[in-house]
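User: quick one
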Amino acid sequence: MRLDNYAVADAPRLGVRGWLRWVWRQVTSMRVALLLLLLLALAAIPGSILPQWPQDAAAANAFVAANPFWGPLLDATGFLDVFGSAWFTAIYLLLFASLIGCIAPRAVAHARELRAPVAAAPSRLDRYEPTSASSPLTPADAVAAARATLRPRGGAWGALGGTRVRVDERDGAVALAAETGHLRELGNLVFHAALVGVLVAMAAGELLTFRGQAIIVEGRSFTNAVVAYDTFDSGALFDEADLEPFMLRLDRFDSAFDDTGRPLSFAAQVTLARPGEDGEASTIEVNRPLEVDGAKIYLQGNGYAPVLTVRDGAGEVASSGPVVFLPTDAAYTSQGVLKVPDVSTGPQLGFKATLYPSAVEGPFAIASVHPDPANPVIMMLGYEGDLGLDAGIPQNAYRLDESQLSPLRGEDGQPVTLRLALGDTVELPDGLGTVTFEELPRFVALDLRADPSLPWLLVAALLALAGLSVSLFASRRKVWVVAREEGGTTVVTVAGYAPGHDAGAAPVRARVLAAATGDEAGERDPA
Amino acid sequence: MNVTDLSVMALWGATALYAIAMVASAINLARVADARVRARAAVAAGAPGAPGEATTEAGGASSPARASSRAAGIARSTTLVGALLHAVGVTARGIDAGHLPWTNMYEYTISGAFFAVAVLLIIQRRRDVAFLQTGVVGLAAISVGLALAVLYAEVNPLPPALQSFWIAIHVSIAVISTGIFTVAFVASVLQLMRDSRDRGTRWRGARARFLEAVPGATVLEGLSFRLNAVGFVLWTFTVMSGAMWAEDAWGRYWGWDPKEVWSFVIWVVYAAYLHARTTQGWAGRRSAWLAIAGFVALIMNFTVVNLFFQGLHTYAGS
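Assistant: Done. Structure below.
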């Protein structure tokens, strides 16, 4: 197949290779890199405005449901998962292709330049802001004095960070050429290469990482195995056998709040036990995760898990244990659901409950005023019927499927609200049984995560930072000194080249000129 | 008088002094500009071929109008005393709160404005940048005034999420780089205005005559670049240390939280600016616009993202 580069029949043809070369040259040009950078910035913005599936699935779901036209459209085009979308990925991959295409040839050129000798001073210095003065020294001495102020260095370090110098004699003049620092370009190369390293480390992390969340109630334990987690995600290359088989028990959860209920500290007191070893007590706090064999355990949330015991109509214990209530506000007003399928007699029971840790009760309303359990009260609605658990479809533990349930009603036919203070037992209507509020332990939500790529990511990031600093702040200068015998006196001309922002270049040239004209003060000038 | 009152009164004092400094430095700029225009007219009439433009470029420090200007002295002393009061106000707030004074929008604003003025004063020690003073001190007066009037928050204990040594590293560098970007922003705006005036496209009138007291566009570009380069390195560090803190606090180093998204956008825009400076057709005006876009993104990240977007950095809005 041939590709036409012009619609005109007799125009020269590029051919496939020519086109590819043209495309590559475009991609690696600075202009395209710049446009890709701007595009990347622009493309990221919707990710902060629209609800994103990975960050907040509930909000994304609600957004799609609430916007029948825009919701599905934006979802299908990747705007509700910007950072995983094809177009965002395309932009940054192109940007990195551009970066590599730009940096690789420059690295080769830089390596060649490092080994090349210093170029001789140009024969005409007019273009480089020359300044001249007469000197009492001979041309050779003047150049030697100038050379001393430049403090040249040889070898690899001289080529990289120091000043390299060459001196020629030509046409009766002595010419010195000094070059300072290839460090700037080296920093630039290191910075860009390290950015590739950051990307590679992040990609490797995606493949090797795992993250799981587990909820543990005070006094209970958790075993580090995939089945024990409430949620578990892992990368494609993660092997379940790599999970270290430890046990973690939550001994106690400490929290402190000020009078207004603002949190002051959270600390989970845990015991960590490996197989065949004694347990080891540790503390997990916010900002202070516990490290276990390369994995980290984070304290991500906490709340109350009231122990509720339900006895059925026959007086048999149908359910007993802590029920995790999720906090809904700063005063830890918490909601929980209790499902009691295993009754010995009568219908299955279900409860929707709200816990008020520091309850203040008025005639028509109840509210919690503080997160501490000063006066814990549970208000709950009971249901009877079929919980729908037998269908085999996994259910959300925090939601009651009311489709086959009916509320428990009192003698007046109205749904009954049950009120339980700590230690209370209340009777259910129609002799369906009793509910007891036994204890009020705390629970913690722990995130366990391991990402073996982190040290590499850190190294790449630090290299990027170092390279960036050097590339922006290291100076790159050329200084030329030509000393010539003219009518019995020596005339010294100093010129140089430095980027416009390099404010240190002019003082260096002034110092060199001062030294070459025998001005002692110039050499002492601190710079 | 307790520490809370001391902090608030010192900050109001700083605001007032900055406002005076802004007016005084504006008057000073106008005087210098007048003197230069007159001098140039005299040169043009009397001595043809004299380097009029060169004097404008390099004569900032030694211009006679400047030395005699009382306004310049007032501007400088009020800025200095304002900065001292500002430092007292920020320090007292920190003592009052019992933690570093940058844990919410109010504290971040007063600290960021302080660093902007501090950066100005530090540059002022090394070279004459009186032309930046009006803009920087004006922005400082507005932001400290707004902080006191609108954003003021009672001192709060540090929530567990912020109880980390990273707050001393991550947030302080973020505040300092914000201060540096602010000064660079003023330089970029002046660069564009001066450039337009030199080309005769905009800002030609008598009202924009103060631009005669401002260095040439190339000089401003260089100044803006050096500040933005420092700001960019510090911002890179801000993002990196933020990722390290997030790894400790939230169990992931990067999660595209709205604050993270905007920090990334800011970084990319300033990176684009640095590339644009060395790209044909983008150097000069276009790259200055990119620097301004970066600063706008920085302000967006601090205002809109804090106030309207739901994310993990929500304590910032309290």
